[in-house]
TrEMBL record:
Bilayer-crossing regions: 27-49, 61-84, 156-183, 256-276
Domain ABC transporter: from-to ranges: 353-591
Lineage top rank: taxon: Bacteria
Domain ABC transmembrane type-1: 29-315
Protein's name according to its UniProt entry: ATP-binding cassette subfamily B protein
Keyword Cell membrane: yes
Native species: Actinopolymorpha pittospori
GO cellular component: plasma membrane
Length: 597
């Protein structure tokens, strides 16, 4: 029963793989036809050779004409595959390319389904993703492997029928040599696959070492602290350990392949001996010798090739499983209300966003331990606290990058999870602490804040004006059309503060009802901070704002300030109230303000 279910499961995996990688049916059909034609011709080849030799061996009047037909036929079996080979190769490469595209699209779709960070921010996900990438590379070759195997099968059936004409047991004996080869190939491909899977973590670490020394990220520290050699040594250690396993697997493979080359060779010798014996008894003529010797040579080569191709098909099946496992696991880690029952998100919060006994931890270690707070609609709430207190974590919960472990966040009296997720997000504006620096133009870097909105160009410029990004853009060589990256020619890199102004423009592009600002002024100079601060009031007018900042000059403009400590809100009130309270807020404020007196 389990065996049957296993077979059914395997068939389903391959069926899904075939649907995925044979995306272009026309190219697939033509390449399949070419493969099958080549197979038929290679079976005809020894048979036509026999006809030619037989004609030549029995000279009779008109032999020149009689030999012409099989001779031309034989020549065609040599010429046609050779002529069609480049066509077939080009089409196969095209099939391969299309398969790469199909697999990539599947991976992007999977990424789109990961609506939150619950899985993405775990090490296990990165291993999974690394596996999926390796799987994508193999899976895209499936079309070629499968077509090769199908063509080889067809050729072998034809050749076996020919050899069976000599002696059925000889055909059976030759065919049987493939069985142990197949079993070993299967074992070898599984072990190759498992080695690859086990090496995922060191492979990621090695990749990291290579990237660190060649990319801009971390380039200054790597050079200042002379870390090139240090990372190289680290790479060498990882490589040696990983390579030892790969080398062992390769050696096992080499031993097995050599043994099977001998086995196929021995089978061939036995076949030749049988042919010679039959010649001796007078049962076979010269044409038969040409036929059977050729057929047996092709048969053994074909059997060898088939076991290799089937091994590759088998391994690709394992990769398919891995790829589809990744794709199927790409589901939201947060609760997503079904479209038909989801609450439509309102343009702007009408009453309040409320956090009720919110608990959360990324692992077993709690970060938030019962946060209670009310964020009145249309007002700005600032969140302050020490490093690591959990402020950005609150932002992740408000933007639904995670769901609370327990407790609830409510928007106008309804749980956040009850709202249509996509719609809720379109009502959300955000400037994240670790905002993205897209390798796009200045205009696009702002426009991505509302790609579906109307009159994008005018709104981009308006948002840039309000965030101070317009001055940054004015200084760029091609203005809004300047690529903001040194990856491409003509691109420029911005300073941290300049990037922050663009990220702020992006965050305010949408007509969002709920806006979260996580350290929006951290990189700004005093003047830019003051101007943005002056603008915040008008930027946030009528919206519900959540502002996280260590800068009390920014924080004090909030209508309400929450002080987070030890995973809870320990103080709440307006700036003056909290200063008067003389608690944590007053102490933090005094420490910062005192430095400027
Ligand atoms: N993706 C994550 N996975 C695991 N732990 C995390 C993750 N992000 C944050 N943490 C942990 O959660 C805690 C709170 O982090 P958070 O970023 O919310 O602090 P914060 O108050 O915003 O700090 P800061 O003022 O330094 O920005 C920290 O101990 C941090 O190590």
């Amino acid at each position: 029963m389990r065996g049957l279910r296993g077979c059914w499961d395997t068939a389903r995996v391959y069926g899904r793989g075939v649907r995925l990688v044979f995306a272009n049916r026309r190219v697939f059909a033509v390449t399949t036809l070419l493969v099958l034609l080549a197979s038929v011709l290679s079976v005809l080849q020894p048979w036509l050779l026999k006809q030619v030799v037989d004609q030549l061996a029995t000279p009779a009047p008109g032999v020149a004409t009689a030999v012409l037909v099989p001779a031309v036929g034989y020549a065609l079996t040599l010429v046609v595959p050779a002529v069609l080979a480049p066509v077939q190769q080009t089409m196969t490469v095209s099939l391969d390319d299309q398969a790469v595209g199909a697999v990539d699209r599947e991976l992007i779709e999977a990424g789109r389904r990961l609506t939150d960070l619950t899985r993405i921010e775990t090490p296990a996900f990165h291993d999974d993703e690394q596996h999926a990438r390796a799987a994508a590379m193999h899976a895209s070759h499936f079309a070629v492997f499968a077509q090769n195997a199908a063509g080889q099968c067809l050729t072998l059936v034809g050749l076996l029928v020919l050899v069976a004409g000599l002696h059925p047991l000889l055909a059976l004996g030759l065919a049987a040599t493939v069985v142990p080869h197949l079993v070993t190939q299967r074992r070898m491909h599984r072990s190759q696959f498992e080695t690859m899977a086990a090496q995922s973590r060191p492979a990621r670490e090695m990749d990291y070492c290579v990237r660190l020394t060649t990319q801009a990220d971390g380039a200054k520290e790597v050079r200042t602290f002379g870390l090139g050699g240090w990372f190289l040594a680290r790479y060498e250690r990882l490589f040696e350990a990983a390579y030892a396993e790969v080398r062992a697997a390769r050696l096992r493979h080499l031993r097995a392949s050599t043994a099977f080359a001998f086995l196929h060779g021995a089978a061939l010798v036995a076949g030749f001996w049988f042919v010679l014996r039959e010649v001796g008894t007078g049962r076979l003529g010269p044409g038969d010798v040409a036929l059977y010797v050729n057929a047996m040579i092709q048969l053994e080569a074909g059997l060898f090739g088939l076991s290799m191709s089937l091994g590759q098909v088998y391994e690709t099946g394992l990769y398919f499983r891995q790829l589809f496992g990744f794709v199927d696991r790409a589901v939201p880690g947060i609760a997503v209300a079904p479209a038909d029952t989801a609450e439509p998100a309102r343009g702007r919060p009408e009453h309040a966003v409320e956090l009720r006994e919110v608990h959360f931890g990324y692992s077993t270690e709690p970060v938030l331990r019962g946060v209670n707070a009310v964020l009145p609609a249309g007002s700005v709430t600032a969140v302050v606290g020490d490093n690591g207190a959990g402020k950005s974590t609150v932002v992740k919960l408000l933007t639904r990058m995670y769901d609370p472990t327990s407790g609830e966040i409510r928007l106008d009296g309804r749980p956040l999870a009850a709202y249509d997720l996509a719609e809720f997000r379109t009502r959300l504006g955000a400037v994240f602490q670790d905002f993205a620096r897209f390798a796009l133009t200045a205009r696009e870097n702002i426009a991505v804040g509302d790609v579906d909105g109307p009159e994008l160009s005018a709104r981009v410029e308006e948002a840039a004006r309000r965030s101070g990004a317009d001055e940054v853009v004015a200084s760029l060589p091609a203005g809004y059309d300047t690529p903001l990256t040194r990856l491409f020619e003509g691109g420029v890199e911005l300073s941290g503060g300049q990037w922050q102004k663009l990220a702020t423009a992006r965050g305010f592009l949408r007509d969002a009802g709920l806006v979260v600002l996580d350290e929006p002024t951290a990189a700004l100079d005093a003047d830019a901070e003051r101007r943005l601060f002056d603008n915040f009031r008008s930027l946030l007018a009528g919206r519900t704002g959540v502002l996280i900042s260590h800068r009390f000059s920014t924080v004090r403009m909030a209508d309400q300030i929450l002080v987070v400590h030890d995973g809870r809100v320990v103080e709440a009130g307006a700036h003056q109230e909290l200063v008067a309270l003389g608690g944590r807020y007053a102490t933090m404020f005094e420490m910062q303000a005192g430095r400027y007196r």
